[in-house]
Amino acid sequence: MALTYEQAGALAWQWLEQIARVSETDDPERNGVTRLCATREHRQALDMLGGWMRDAGMALRSDNGANLIGRYASANPAAPTLLLGSHQDTVPHGGKYDGIMGVLLPLALVRYLDHHAIALPFHLDVVAFSDEEGTRFSSTLLGSKVLAGTFEPAMLDAQDDQGVTLRQALIDFGCDPERIADDRYAPGEVLGFVEVHIEQGPQLEAEGLPIGVVSAITGIERHKLSIHGLAGHAGTVPMHLRQDALVGAARVIGLVDELCKATDELVGVVGKIDNSPNGVNVIPQRTDLTIELRSPDDATRLAARETLLTRIDAALAELDLRLEQRLIYEQAAVQCAPALVSRLEAAVAASGVTPRTLFSGAGHDGLAMQALCDIGMLFLRCERGISHHPDEAIDPNDLGVAVEVLARFVTALAEAERW
């Protein structure tokens, strides 16, 4: 009996349930999944994934960045390669689907292709990236930077909470950090990179759509602000004479919220506040806070920055407060390749789903992989948009839809190109 898309999706669901138990936590339903880079759980996950890859007839290789790659090979050894995959690591007490679903869905696709003896004129490599989250070493996008050829050796000196360096952890994992540069793909050999990921937002669920196509991965910038006022007794200093730093911070919070709500494709947050001297009856003298802005369009984000900082300067001047501000992080937006977006939209439509294009407000391995090749991305709806949490949930039936979309995408790509 021929394997159906639905059955392949059910197989992916079965795998997801099994690998969720590979975790530092003892109960993934209640306590989530914790699987960090170059740990015992990482090794167990790769062993489990490797077994499923072998069952699908794939050739396996591990690299010196602790990535696992399974190849569904073309009959032509010199054929180019299409990369599919995502990360297997998690945040502490994370969900069962963030990242790992994007490894197991391509693996279910390979099982479907192999079952139907569908040959491709290109190699199809399924990648389980080693460390996208950066939880253990703050080494975000480790695995994808290795494959893209943008890994910086200085990252090897990063330490975890126990003082173990990334270099030593990789050595203990069986890798040779000094040979990481040898593990990159040659740019000319790669057709593109496509990732499937849970949306981590509520839009697809609200619109009743199982799957959507990503247009871009957001650009991000973060600022640290220190607002300086003057401490005083809260009962004796008249209100009109106060220099209250926390009142200034409240103005900043309002300005961020107001600007982001009024600007399309812009989101922002004041995520962290420290107040001093933080006494119940003391006027705050200093308030430190962070501002984060995100947009898939860098011009929008940069214009918003200029507008926001101008408004903040004016508001704090009115309150007789002094401001120190510095940019502490900036990541440019990455656009998904139009050709891949259109092919993925066509595959979604051919699967009987109304195409919906949306941008990713979170970072993904594509941020690194775009230095190597064109990137594309699919989102699967998730319940209430929850992610990085034990309550992360998906509809199992959506996995079959995703397998169908991927199958239509790769077979159309094979038929459309001249090889």
Helical stretch tally? 12
Instruction: Average the pLDDT over all residues and give the rounded result.
Output: 96
**CATH homologous group name of the largest domain:** Zn peptidases
Number of extended strands: 14
- End-to-end gap: 32 Å
User: Which descriptor suits the 3D outline?
Assistant: elongated
How helical, in percent, are the residues?
A: 25-40%
CATH architecture level-2 label of the largest domain:
3-Layer(aba) Sandwich
Keywords: Hydrolase, Manganese, Metal-binding, Zinc
Organism: Halomonas salipaludis
Family: Belongs to the peptidase M20 family.
Subunit structure: Homodimer.
Short descriptors:
419 residues; alpha/beta; Aminopeptidase; Alpha-Beta Plaits; 2 domains; five-stranded antiparallel beta sheet; 12 helices; 14 strands; elongated
Topology:
Elements: H1 5-19, H2 28-31, H3 40-55, E1 59-62, E2 68-72, E3 81-87, H4 101-115, E4 123-129, H5 142-148, H6 166-172, E5 190-198, H7 203-206, E6 211-217, E7 219-228, H8 245-262, E8 267-269, E9 273-276, E10 286-295, H9 298-318, E11 322-331, E12 334-335, H10 338-350, E13 357-360, H11 366-369, E14 375-380, H12 396-416
Helix pairs in contact: 1-4, 1-12, 4-12, 8-9, 10-12
Describe this structure in words.
With 419 residues, this protein is of the alpha/beta class. It folds into 2 domains: 5-217 and 333-416, 3-Layer(aba) Sandwich (Aminopeptidase), CATH 3.40.630.10; 219-331, Alpha-Beta Plaits (2-Layer Sandwich), CATH 3.30.70. It contains 12 helices and 14 strands. The strands form 2 sheets. Strands 1, 2, 3, 4, 5, 6, 12, 13 and 14 form a 9-stranded mixed β-sheet that branches. Strands 7, 8, 9, 10 and 11 form a 5-stranded antiparallel β-sheet that branches. A hairpin with a 5-residue loop joins strand 1 (59-62) and strand 2 (68-72). It is elongated. The protein starts with a helix and ends with a helix. The model has no long low-confidence stretch (mean pLDDT 96). Its cofactor is Mn(2+); Zn(2+). It holds the Pfam family Peptidase_M20. This is Allantoate amidohydrolase. Zn(2+) 2 binds at residues 98, 133, 388. Keywords: Hydrolase, Manganese, Metal-binding, Zinc.
